[in-house]
Design a protein that fits this description.
Structural class: alpha/beta
Strand order of the largest sheet: 18-19-20-16-12-21-22
Strand content: 15-25%
Helix content: 25-40%
Radius of gyration: 23 Å
Distance between the termini: 49 Å
Largest sheet: 7 strands, mixed
Oligomer: single chain
Shape: globular
Number of strands: 22
């Protein structure tokens, strides 16, 4: 088996920060988990380590200082990259998922495709139109479209949290059998299972940790058709300052003349955090978009304690893809546009201790900052209820903490949050805060039970 070797040190630089990547030897197949406080630097490290072109490193804002020592043999057939803008990769030309994935593959290797589809849990989607998929299902299709080409090097940049937990586990535990001669870099703060190496980038020199094989790896895991019910859990965090109540009775959302999920009944009061969980395609995004008035709904939604009946006056939506939401040049301008009050913007900045240097950075430069801005803008719109679709996607540790603090601030003031998430750490943290009560996916069950931390 060929050994991939970084033969010379590489120096990356941006402003006053410098990263020195020293020679390292990696034997394929291998999975490298890259994490650190700066997502763009993490990506630049992965690109440099695996010999991607300097132009890609420049795109994330870093320069290869010692360019005379930097060599690359990258081409489109050997070096693949999937990033947080993965939705752009869906062509829109092919009517089925199967055709979209197999586009351009030699001899249409259906056996290879079928195995990948089984591992990612998308076999049941093969005849579905790619435009009709959820965000997580779309991410799986894009991943599959790269895997069928058997890349020698693959970078998964902040796409892992688009997948439900079972799909993440299945992919990381099977990817070395799909790509037996490849090196895969996963750039993310957390991943669910075994990797060969973890690289932490917190100083000017990456810290490598080599993991030893473990018997806990379940290499045979594959994902079935994700038909489990959407789960709704209500977490009461604070004593409500207001008396607002949102009652859902046999609520569901209609797409293509069908209910997206089994009807749900629940009651959310002021300061409640309503958590939506379930596998990719279970209807979490549709649930939120239905409340926002963007999709047709069935059942009833009753809001007590306020006079307004217009959806726009009740709900503020932060979508899964922040690019659908951002209109202004920087964070400060977006927040000001959201509420129209410099006093409110400045109060939020002060309460969250938001670093001043983030206020004027062009939002187009970093999707994590776009995502954080979308969340803060939704909270500042002054609506009674915030609808947050996967609020921790793409966020660094620092941004994640700011987002959580902002959510708590909004709940403390009496707002209601409906939130979808696959982020186990975020979900576990929220559940530890206080008591919870659970709503069924059938509409016939509602209970309140103590929660033990």
């Amino acid at each position: 088996m060929e050994v991939a070797t970084l033969k010379n040190s590489i120096v990356l630089k941006r402003y006053q920060r410098e990263l020195i990547i020293e020679p390292y030897e990696i034997r394929p197949p291998a999975i490298i988990h890259v994490k650190g406080d700066n997502p763009l630097l993490n990506v630049a490290f992965a690109l440099s380590l695996l010999g991607y072109p300097k132009e890609m490193i420049w795109e994330v804002g870093y320069e290869v200082v010692n360019s005379s020592f930097y060599t690359q043999d990258r081409n489109d057939s050997t070096h693949h990259y999937i990033g947080p803008y993965f939705r752009w990769e869906v062509s829109g030309f092919w009517p089925t998922v199967e055709e979209e994935i197999l586009l351009g593959t030699p001899n249409n290797n259906f056996e290879h495709y079928n195995r990948i589809a089984s591992i990612l849990g998308i076999a049941h989607l093969c005849k579905r139109n790619p435009a009709m998929l959820s965000g997580g299902e779309t991410a799986k299709v894009v991943i599959a479209s790269h895997l069928v080409h058997n890349p020698r090097f693959l970078i998964l940049d902040r796409i892992f949290n688009e997948l439900d937990e079972i799909s993440r586990l299945s992919l990381v535990n099977n990817i070395k059998t799909i790509l037996p001669s490849s090196i895969v870099c996963i750039v993310d703060e957390t991943i669910p299972s075994y990797c060969d190496f973890t690289v932490s980038i917190e100083s000017n020199k990456p810290k490598w940790l080599k993991h030893h094989p473990t018997t806990n790896i379940s290499s045979g895991i594959s994902v079935g058709n994700n038909m489990a019910l959407l789960h709704v859990e209500i977490i009461s965090l604070f004593k409500a300052k207001h008396k607002i109540k949102i009652t859902l009775e046999n609520y569901s959302v209609i797409r293509i003349n069908k209910k997206t999920f089994d009807p749900v009944s629940c009651i959310a009061n002021s300061s409640d955090f309503v958590l939506l969980t379930g596998p990719n395609g279970s209807g979490k995004t549709s649930f939120l978009e239905g409340l926002a008035g963007l999709l047709e709904v069935c059942g009833s939604v009753v809001v007590d304690g306020i006079d307004e009946t217009d959806h726009k006056a009740i709900y503020a939506l932060s979508p899964q893809d922040p690019q659908c939401d951002i209109t202004e040049h920087n964070l400060y301008d977006e927040l000001l546009f959201a509420c129209g009050s410099t006093d409110q913007v400045n109060a939020l900045i002060k309460d969250l201790k938001l670093p001043q240097h983030y206020l004027k950075i062009p939002l187009k430069e970093e999707i994590g900052l776009q995502k954080l801005t979308s969340i803060l803008a939704a909270i500042l719109r002054g609506r009674y209820c915030c609808l947050l679709d996967e609020p921790t996607l793409y966020l660094s540790k620092e941004f994640r903490q700011i987002a959580i603090n902002a959510i708590f601030r909004y709940l403390r003031q009496g707002g209601i949050v409906f939130c979808s998430s696959h982020d186990k750490y975020f979900i576990d943290f929220m559940k530890k805060c206080t008591i919870n009560h659970t709503a069924s996916g059938k509409g016939g069950f509602f209970s309140r039970t103590p929660h033990t931390t």
